[in-house]
Design brief:
Layout (H helix, E strand, L loop, with lengths): L11 H57 L6 H6 L1 H10 L3 E6 L5 E3 L2 H7 L3 H7 L4 E7 L3 E12 L2 E11 L1 H35 L2 H15 L6 H9 L7 H65 L4 H26 L4 H4 L3 E3 L1 H18 L3 E6 L6 E3 L1 H18 L5 E9 L2 E9 L32 H11 L3 E7 L3 E9 L8
Parallel strand pairs: 7-9
Antiparallel strand pairs: 1-2, 1-5, 3-4, 4-5, 6-8, 9-10, 10-12, 11-12
Helix pairs in contact: 1-3, 1-6, 7-8, 8-9, 9-10, 9-12, 12-13, 13-14
Length: about 500
């Protein structure tokens, strides 16, 4: 049957012409844009390296000046010898030097220059104890750098140094070199485009590629990658010429096949992941439910043994049984609803001392069972913390429970609550066989268990400390362990102290 002759703009030659012409024009336009960006990047990278050296040298000059004058390295010394420091910096090549105190008040330098400089971003960041520089480009190859830095000596912020550097020569030199490279690249690119166009004009290479691709389809049907392979090699999407018509059905077939293979692989990985996590889920549930059940059972046994005559034990035991049964009920409900316990409770400001006292009182029953005593020391006026009460109680219970199980009978287990450098710390110590140095790095990993012969309790799943470590990460805190084998083990739990103005 006679076919109407195709129009030129649907032909292979027309499309190849566009593929060469349009990218060539677009590339030439983009080159000018990216050249300037790349040049600025390398210049500013070099400036950043030199400003780092300037910062180090400036601190050295300040330190030497104060040492030579036998002055203290503080704000008063920096202000007293500001003129000598300025002379040192000037002799080192610094220009338009400004010296200020930590509050940003001018100590030395031109007041007019300071009036302009204090409004710049680099000076503002220096007041926040951060070194910074600003680069300004101008016509005629101008490149001006304004550098501001805090002066920190012996951990004390004593002042600010701001200065000016001229990088115009470097900027002009790199600009000329890159411009020559760009024009050379444009010429080479143009020549290559012309060669390709004339070559493809004479040789119908796409038809040969199509023939080879058709053979590969039958050879790789079960490969799982045949769709991507063909699409990458042919690149015929959206064509309306002879090759496009021939490939349209192949494209759709390969695309659908690839999607099915990908879906099967994803389903397989999902099933394997669910299967491997099942046992871990059961172990976590067992560990979560064990502690409240132990507490409830312990108090119930004591109340049964002492009878109704011990009124104090009756009220204390009832309180703890109600509290732990409520917590147990909440865990069970959350498990049934398949909710994450970490999301069930909102973080709030907590009195950590009260929580530690409550947990210590709860765990005394178990400690007495193993002939141990829990002693709590520390101030009740410690800083509050931001967190989730149930999670923090879980960490404390896990750590104290470990101290009881692996502690030596008849020995006290001291629990101390302290505040140090913005941190609220809880330390739990016990005397016993301890932990070897090579094991200290692995005790917080899931399913790790120490020597079973050292524990006075069977059935541990090895999840307690790993759960505690994850909870501390959620609270931006840390849990660490230190041990002297054969003598003592100390667990330290650190929380960031809540600021008085901090809100949840």
């Amino acid at each position: 049957m006679y076919r109407k002759k195709r129009r030129f703009f649907h032909s292979i030659l027309f499309r190849i012409s566009l593929w060469i012409l349009l990218p060539g024009i677009a590339g030439m336009l983009l080159v000018a844009y990216f050249v300037e960006m790349q040049m600025h990047y390398y210049i500013e990278k070099q400036i950043a390296e030199e400003m780092q050296r300037v910062r180090d040298n400036s601190l050295l000059y300040v330190r030497q000046t104060l040492l030579i004058n036998d002055s203290r390295m503080d704000v008063a010394g920096f202000e007293l010898y500001r003129n000598e420091i300025e002379k040192q910096l000037s002799s080192a090549g610094y220009r338009e030097i400004i010296l200020c105190d930590p509050e940003g008040m001018l100590l030395a330098g031109d007041s007019k220059v300071f009036g302009l400089r204090k409004e710049q971003e680099d000076f503002a960041r220096a007041k926040e104890q951060e070194s910074a520089f600003s680069v300004r480009y101008g016509n005629g190859g101008q490149c001006e750098v304004y550098f501001s830095m805090p002066v920190n000596l012996n951990g004390q912020f004593i002042g600010i140094i701001s200065s000016f550097f001229d990088y115009g020569e470097l900027y002009r030199g790199q600009s000329d070199a890159i411009e020559r490279m760009v024009w050379t690249a444009v010429a080479v690119f143009t020549l290559i485009c012309l060669i390709i166009w004339f070559t493809v004009y004479r040789i119908l290479l796409p038809i040969r590629k199509l023939s080879r691709a058709a053979g590969e389809i039958s050879a790789h049907l079960a490969d799982g990658r045949q769709g991507s392979m063909i699409l990458d090699k042919l690149q015929f999407q959206g064509r309306r010429d002879e090759i496009g018509e021939l490939c349209a059905n192949y494209m759709e077939m390969l695309r659908v096949t690839e999607e099915q293979f990908q879906r099967i692989r994803e389903d397989k990985e999902r099933i394997l992941t669910l299967w491997s996590s099942r046992q871990e889920f059961y172990n976590n549930v067992t560990h979560e439910l064990k502690t409240p059940l132990t507490t409830i059972s312990g108090y119930a046994q004591l109340m049964e043994k002492n009878g109704p005559g011990d009124e104090e034990l009756f009220y204390i035991g009832t309180e703890h049984i109600l509290k732990e049964s409520t917590r147990l009920h909440r865990m069970v409900v959350q498990l049934l609803e398949m909710q994450d316990k970490a999301d069930a409770e909102d973080a709030r400001r907590l009195n950590l001392a009260e929580i530690v006292e409550s947990v210590t009182e709860t765990m005394k029953i178990k400690a007495n069972r193993y002939d141990n005593t829990l002693t709590l020391k520390g101030t009740k006026e410690c800083a509050p913390v931001i967190g989730k009460e149930d999670k923090i109680r879980q960490v404390l219970i896990n750590v104290i429970d470990n101290a009881i199980k692996y502690g030596e009978p008849g020995k006290p287990i001291p629990i101390r609550l302290t505040r140090q450098a913005g941190q609220v710390q809880i330390t739990v110590s016990n005397q016993g066989q301890g932990i070897r140095k090579d094991e200290l790095e692995t005790i917080f990993e899931p399913f790790y268990r120490a020597d079973k012969g050292l524990s006075r309790e069977m059935g541990s799943s090895g999840l307690g400390l790993s759960i505690a470590a994850r909870i501390m990460e959620e609270h931006r805190g840390r849990i660490t362990a230190a041990s002297i084998p054969g003598k003592e083990t100390v667990f330290t739990i650190s929380f960031p102290a809540a600021d008085r103005k901090e809100k949840v």
